[in-house]
Amino acid sequence: VVLLGAPLFGASDLTLVGIFTGIGNEREIFLRLRVPRVGAAFLAGASLALSGLLLQTLFKNHLATPFTLGISSGAALGAVLS
What we know:
The chain is mainly α. It is built from 4 helices and no strands.
């Protein structure tokens, strides 16, 4: 429900009538700005959840974290080097 409703809310609230009829710039704002941002946020969250699941499955430990293999330290090193 949040995934479908999130693109409607922002700095200027969009109406379904404006999106479907193309009144003003509402359709452009919806299709070119808000939908891709919500989609990217959904994919980023899903990939983080999947990586956490795989890490916990690999170690057969429900409390496994990225610190277990040094993943967080490697990410910090990459951020510093960049």
